[in-house]
Write a structure and sequence with these properties.
The chain is an all-alpha fold. 55% of the residues lie in helices and 2% in strands. Strands 1-2 form a two-stranded antiparallel ribbon. Strand 1 and strand 2 form a beta hairpin. InterPro entries: DUF4218.
């Protein structure tokens, strides 16, 4: 969890060239000069008091920053999936500030994979996306030992690719810990049972109970006891709004003014076909229809693509005729 947060801060700070957070600065360029690598990034003396730092391939231009931040600013996620990340985006200043640990978790595993496409060269984007995929696989609900062994070598290879792009200052101790996360998962099991997100949320609730800073422990104990008592009493209070009878934040159904739309024949057929081809209950009938097509075309030996095309075109009519023939016994029909 904290590894993910620090890696995310390193990536965003360096790509956006944020003051105080970027790992690409004068000292990092001087390190490259001392080591004798990447001569195109070495600092250059322009005047007696000025030093020019050549632009690096991993730093976004102003236009790319605008596009990158607009993607994050306009992203829409389901309710409760994450906090409002758009509040942390400052388009005019080209900055990202105030990200929490879970925000970095969502960025690394879901949003960066989409936002980085087209913002940087492929040689930079590819290893970063691979790093995001590694974190996402490590946070899976189920883990396979063979997959974890593959991730061990894959994480090392990904960091090696990143070392060819980013300066040495980018690779702090936290970044190097990525190579050990798969081994840790093999020993300790899935990450969900070990990370600190629920603990930090609980500590945040306890911290909000502190009224007297001279005696925080007493305030927390008193606030916790009050909450337990109110929760118990609210189970028996029907005439007042409580956490047990209040309406849900997301209400199914129409909200506000409603409108009616009319589907043309083509759109209706597409919607009908989509439902039939994405319902598990219809899969046995689809297999039967494909077998019928294969028997009818046995002499010509059609390819699988031809069979699928005929199946897509004729399945709806065949299924309708089958229903008309069987009638109400259709749901018990086994073919």
């Amino acid at each position: 969890m904290h590894v993910e947060k620090n890696v995310s801060d390193n990536i965003l700070g360096t790509l956006l060239n944020l003051d105080g957070k970027t790992k690409d600065n004068l000292k990092a360029r001087c390190d490259l000069q001392d080591i004798g690598i990447r001569h195109e990034l070495h600092p250059q003396s322009v005047d007696s008091n000025k030093i020019y730092l050549p632009p690096a391939c991993f730093v976004m231009s102003l236009k790319d920053r605008d596009e990158f931040l607009k993607v994050l600013k306009n992203v829409k996620v389901p309710d409760g999936y994450s906090s409002n990340i758009s509040r942390c985006i400052q388009l005019k200043q080209h900055k990202i500030t105030g990200l929490k640990s879970h925000d970095s978790h969502i960025l690394m595993q879901q949003l960066l994979v989409v936002a980085l496409r087209g913002a940087l060269p492929k040689v930079v984007v590819a290893p970063l996306i691979d790093l995001c995929c590694i974190f996402r696989e490590l946070c899976s609900k189920t883990l396979n030992v063979q997959e974890l062994e593959r991730l061990e070598s894959r994480s090392v290879e990904t960091l090696c690719h990143l070392e060819r792009i980013f300066p040495p200052s980018f690779f702090t101790i936290i970044v190097h810990l990525v190579t050990h996360l798969a081994t840790e998962a093999k020993i300790a099991g899935p990450v969900q049972y070990r990370w600190m997100y629920p603990i930090e949320r609980f500590l945040f609730d306890l911290k909000s109970d502190v009224r007297n800073k001279a005696h925080p422990e007493g305030s927390i104990a008193e606030g916790y006891l009050v909450e337990e008592c109110m929760t118990f009493c609210s189970r028996y209070l029907d005439s007042v709004e409580t956490i047990f009878n209040r309406p849900a934040r997301n209400i199914d159904g129409s909200i506000g003014a409603t409108s009616h739309i009319h589907l043309d024949q083509k759109t209706w057929m597409q919607a009908h076909r989509y439902v039939l081809f994405n319902s598990n209950e219809i899969n046995p009938f689809r297999s039967i229809h494909k077998d019928i097509i294969k028997r009818q075309k046995r002499g010509t030996r059609p390819s699988e693509a031809v069979i699928n095309k005929i199946h897509m075109e004729n399945f709806v009519d065949w299924f309708q005729s089958l229903y008309n023939m069987v009638g109400y016994e259709f749901r018990w029909w086994k073919g």
